[in-house]
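Hey, I was hoping to borrow your eyes for a little while. I've been puzzling over a protein and I'd love to understand its fold better. The fold is given in discrete form, as structure tokens running alongside the sequence. I'd be grateful if you could look everything over and explain what you see. No rush at all, and the record is pasted right below.
>
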Amino acid sequence: MNLPSEEASNPSETRAVGSRPAPSTGEPQVGDVVDDFLLVDRLGQGAFATVFLAHQQSLHRTVALKVSTAKSAEAETLAQLDHPNIVRVYDQRAVPDRGLRLLYMEYVRGGTLEAVVEKVRATPADRRSGRLLLEVVDEALAARGEKPPLDSMLRARLEKATWPESVCLLGAQLATALDYAHGVRVLHRDVKPANVLLDGSGRAKLADFNISYAASLDVATPEESLGGSLPYMAPEQLKAVSPFHEETAADVTERSDIYGLALVLVEVLTGELPFEAPADGLGWKELFAHLIETREPGARPDACQAQGADIPGMLVETLCDALHPDPEQRPASGSELARRLEWCLDPDIRRVLSPSKVWWHRALTRFPLVGLILAGLVVNAVLSALNIAHNLTVVYGEQWQEEFRIPVMLVNGIAFPLGIGAFVMLGWRMRRVLRRRAAGLETTAEERSDARRQGLRLGDLMAGVILPLWILGGITFPVWRHMQQGAADQTAYFHFTLSNLGFGILAATVSFFLLAHGVTRVLLPRLVDPGDEDAPRVRQLRRLRRRLPWYFAACTAVPFLSVVLLATQSDQLQELGGAFLALGLLGAVAFAATLTWSTWIRRDVDALMRALGGRAR
């Protein structure tokens, strides 16, 4: 591999490549006509080529014309790519008499991310916003005598965006572009701010595939086109281009492009790269050693933050993960990185998926089944105690206390263990996956999906177990008393069963809301990875959302029916008025609580649906 000599330039700024451009036989200048193109202005200068703003005379259109003397597969590579965030190539031509190759492509008017980085460095962190990006675009447009578009939804969004949100928007676009390129087996291998163009609306477009490698094209080997810009290379790419290491082009993969994009995003976000810059005057061996050593520990979170800027922790974590020295620990694809950046744009997803500092969230994550069972037991124990007191003092009287305890202990002694056992059986696999993830062990997408399925069923399971057991308890004691006494007190029987039904509905609905809140707010977010797209669970979440009003209506029915009974009670029921009033007040409290929980659960469910690939409806 040939590398530029130390005397030629500062190594830390040099673009190392596998082959060197041929000497120019007469570089074109602004004002020249080259083939069909009038060169209007110089847009940029690279190691291989010069890019001009040109007028294509035969078609009367403005294009970006890349003029080079070196042979490249860039045209063939770009011809495979048709994506809104990749610069579109029109065609290529050769000018044999001047030894030139012409590649003409769409003219992207808003400048490059390199100009944005310079603007960021000159702007205090607390004054950066989406407007900063639009100012750079507008300055580039004004320099060409052009005006920004008036009906751009992206510009309107950037006008209101914070700076971290703007970076996430840019990053998601570029990650999607890389994912598309990787999908057709094209590696870019030189992602840097100067190779990202902006159109008039602020949309990012990936350019300069001069040293990319297209596995589907038989025009160059990976080694022949291997190169890149040293400051933006992943550790494995640095070792592959270094003459002092044994790694090869085969070690440079799609995740190397993801690393390069993450470096670009950190620089756009903060104005600086997240690693210590090399000292001036280093030789090539020392330079490569410095670049590799500073990248090997990974990026520190504080290096991915701009001082004084309010950068979401999820964004910092995403960038640090993409800058992991081990390629296997980075996002697996551009699509996954784009997804994580889109999550960072959604406040509810950030709230739900970010690690919580609330003590009961941490406790429930550590002991999921114990926490959910305790929540259900507490609700049922409180309501059971109130119901027993009500029935003993109002329905049957104190003389029945001893006999009443026998069926109560019998029913509860059987019902509670059965309910807990069924709950544990159906939630055990979810608990196992949660514990494995808490221990840092690997879990498959299928295991996580199955655990999410189980978790989403637990609230309905709890309600489905509790209500029948309450109804059974409301029937057991009247039957038992009838068998003991032989005489039937129909009014007492009726109100005993009715009170059990009312308390049972409250117990079932309140338990459902408690468990649904714990599952959707705490447990399910711990079972979601950025690459998870789970259409069945999205449908399950949507069904859960649709059931919320029914549970809420059932809870509301308790105080409503109690008020109706109070208003219509007969003389025989006069002595029960206080009991029904107490039940009505208790229902009103449950109504207020479930109304709040229902609102929280809907927000969390909507966020989880978006995170798993669906849309809230």
